[in-house]
Amino acid sequence: MTDTARRPVDSRWLALVVLCAGMLMIVLDQTIVNVALPAIQADLGFTQGGLAWIVNAYLIAFGGLLLLAGRLGDLIGHKRVFVLGLVVFTVASLLCGLSTTPEMLIGARFVQGVGGALSTAVTLGMIVKMFPQPKEQAKAIGVFSFVAAAGASIGLLLGGVLTQGLNWHWIFFVNVPIGVAAVVLASRLIRTEAGIGLGEGADILGAVLVTGAVMLGVYTIVQAGPDARTLVLGAVAVALLVGFVVRQAKAANPLLPLRVFRSRNVAGANAVQVLMVAGMFGMFFLGTLYMQFVLDYDALRIGLAFLPVAVSIGTLSVGFSARLNARFGERNVLVLGLVLVFVGLLLFVRAPVDGTYLEHLLPVMLPLGIGVGLSFPALMTLAMSGATPDDAGLASGLVNTTAQVGGALGLAILATTSTSRTATLLAEGVPTAQALTSGFHLAFGISAGLVALALVVAVTVVRPIAVTATDAPRPMAFH
């Protein structure tokens, strides 16, 4: 295949569509499962505790392997890792749909997480290398951000439609034709790169340490409880992480060169991502429960309730955000977006037991959608602004890892505090709907607090990206 620079520009945008199609399939899968959980439980005989592992098995594999997968893309070629991930994810989706026992489904979900990590980790790095010019890159990242951010909302709606219209098996079967098409088109449209070679960065010990640390850390978070076992697992995860940092400081070819954190924007953007996603992920999960158990919405109605978020994100991410970033700078747009997300979460705190959509939910969804639509494209650009071409996959894997860890952390904190508050009120004789709503209010307030911390980091740490010429490529340097 000819070099990207000699091919028609349109072919790069076709390649972007393929990348985003693969990304959408994986992002949808993270939320599409939620609305089908009751049907899966009834069909396969899951226990209440076992049901959570349909989500946790995927999350542990996905979050634990992202950083390693990103670096692997730098070493052997981003396209190879992307296509491999699509193949693994597609085969695992078929196995999920064919599952007849809880054990088979949980195992297939873990393999899905492996495939999702391989493909997702390198996608953003491929986009940055494919579109080095600032204007094109901003537009391409806007499209990617729309897929990544709006996919969660679309997944809730699609999950409701498939589960109620067909059955839960189809939330997995739908991935198979999409995955096959994405593999074929990726092979044809995306340029093959050799990578820098395994000898340039095959830090096996570092890979084992960080993968173990993240997997065990995510497992500890999702299984958190007030017991000694949680403390021991958490301590082991921290020890592995410390060992990884020490290893990276001494290794000749480190998996994660510590120089990446010399860039204030890389460090700051990833910190913002952890805090923002922690607040947003828990909010979407608990907001779904609020609509289901307090307002008595069914799966399809819940998906429709979140539709304004997806529409707002789509409208802004694909067009307006790129122009706003170019006009006012990514940092300023990020700050504005975080302010709107914060406002939306505060409004959610006032949602009552007998809330109505127009009065109490729509005013929440609009600032959330607009805020996320502004924030994510700016955040992705800032997170990748310090990446060298050889480290693009690593930086992409890092920003996706912080998102997954932030999501797991936020869900654990918000679900635990909400449940604890509800249980306390129920013990005091408070009616169930009121006790649930009070627990959700506490969680939404904490979500707003996490986003407020993200806003502080964005203001104090992140710096505007310096561009010397309108059409000059983004500066890439954290050497």
TrEMBL record:
Any single GO CC term annotated in Swiss-Prot or TrEMBL for this entry: plasma membrane
PROSITE patterns: MFS
Transmembrane region(s): 12-37, 49-69, 81-100, 106-128, 140-162, 168-190, 202-222, 228-246, 267-293, 299-320, 332-349, 361-382, 394-415, 435-462
InterPro entries: EmrB-like, MFS, MFS_dom, MFS_trans_sf
Subcellular location: Cell membrane
KW RNA-binding (keyword) present: no
Membrane topology: Multi-pass membrane protein
Highest taxon, organism lineage: Bacteria
Keyword annotations from UniProtKB, A to Z: Cell membrane, Membrane, Transmembrane, Transmembrane helix, Transport
Start and end residues of each Major facilitator superfamily (MFS) profile domain: 15-466
SUPFAM superfamilies linked to this entry: MFS general substrate transporter
Chief localisation class: membrane
GO molecular-function term, one example from the UniProt record: transmembrane transporter activity
Alphabetical list of PANTHER family matching this protein: BLR6921 PROTEIN, MAJOR FACILITATOR SUPERFAMILY MULTIDRUG TRANSPORTER MFSC
Protein name per UniProt: DHA2 family efflux MFS transporter permease subunit
Organism: Umezawaea endophytica
Organism ancestry: Bacteria, Bacillati, Actinomycetota, Actinomycetes, Pseudonocardiales
